[in-house]
Amino acid sequence: MSRKEQKSHWDLKYEQGLPSLTEPDPLFLSAYAQFVEPLFPNAGLALDLACGLGRHALWLASRRWRVTGVDLSDVAIEKLRGAALERKVALDLFVGDASGYELTPTRFDLIVLFYHLDRSLFPRIVSALKPGGLLICKMSLRWDAPGAAADPLNRNELPSLVPELQALHHHERPVRDRGVVEFVGKKEEVR
Fold first, then answer.
1. Which of 29, 37, 54, 163 keeps 20 to 30 A from 186, CA to CA?
2. 124 burial level (CB within 10 Å; 0-12, 13-18, 19+)
3. Which residues contact residue 172 at a Cβ distance below 8 angstroms, ignoring those fewer than 6 apart?
């Protein structure tokens, strides 16, 4: 699917509404409580790549995080802009493909990436994390059914894409016709 087709696809989905994508994911909430909050009790700078309707960006912003959200869909970003105004939180929002977003080295304390797979992004994501920074990631995974998703991750592939990160949590499991990988990684601190 071309970028233009992907954009049209997601614009239509967000226009029709995706209520399941308005509440933070359980992995995100547990990872935040277990790993993020202890390391960043005073919040910090976060990036939500392929943020969609901003369920994680809004949640973080409501807890004093400075959050940047990037998504391909104009519709999603406009809905997110409205939700941020309604909740009286500030977000820096950008319409564009995650792969086109300039990831400045050592900028973010936290990067959130849910269900957007672009293998070429991972080295740039790691570079964009500050020392001690965290990546919370959840992706589709090839499990037993071939062709369940366009080009999902293979089992145990995600940790190999971010070898510079210490895996704090890595869990893979089957879900319906595919699998899911949940990952929380920490960038080593400079000593």
1. 54
2. middle
3. 141, 155, 156, 179, 180, 181, 182
Q: What are phi and psi of 54, to 5 degrees?
A: 80, 30
Using one digit for the tens of pLDDT, what is the confidence trace for 167-187? Answer: 999 999 998 778 999 999 999
Q: Which domains does the chain have, with CATH numbers?
A: 23-187 (3.40.50.150)
- Distance of alpha carbon 52 from alpha carbon 75, whole angstroms: 9
Mean pLDDT value of segment 27-36: 98
- Return the pLDDT at 148: 46
pTM: 0.89
Tokens standing for 168?
């704090």
d(CA 79, CA 52): 9
